[in-house]
Amino acid sequence: MTVDGLPPGSSPHRASMDESVGELVSQLTNDLGQLTRQELALAKAELQAEAKKAGKGAGMLGGAAFAGWMVALFVSLTVMWALDEAMDLIWAALIVAVLWAIVAAVLAARGRKELQEVSPKPDQTVESLKEDAKWLKTRKS
User: Which Pfam families does the record match to this protein (predicted)?
Assistant: First the structure.
């Protein structure tokens, strides 16, 4: 023991350094926890937006499927009435079938376009995580 009551080789500054390191570790742990929660919230928001786009595209493809079914129905009716040799009725049924074919094509094209724009990767979150990694590296130095 030295005169001031501390063990040999120790100083009063060492105790305050240990406390400040502990505070830094505690602060870093809190910051990392908050950062993780924020990143998860960002990823959740991005994925919800992409799921909404996917739902819209799927709805349009569902409409295209219904329109396609209508095409099959009216083409079938056209063939049936063609066999009955009713010229006016044949042309009317054929015109309706062509209109449904156009509707099916438009809905299918728009639905496919919507689904191609869906990104399953949360780009903003990935970019933010890269920035966080850079920040942590500078913090460790």
Answer: Phage_holin_3_6 (PF07332)
- Structural domain containing residue 37: 16-69
Q: What is the pLDDT of residues 86-95, one digit of tens each?
A: 566 777 777 7
Question: Is residue 22 included in any domain, yes or no?
Answer: yes
Amino acid at 84: D
Residues with Cβ within 8 Å of 39's Cβ and at least 6 positions away in sequence, in order, are 125, 128, 129, 132
Residue 3 lies in a domain: no
pTM comes to 0.39
How many angstroms separate the CA atoms of 130 and 120, rounded? 18
Distance CA 107, CA 61 (A): 6
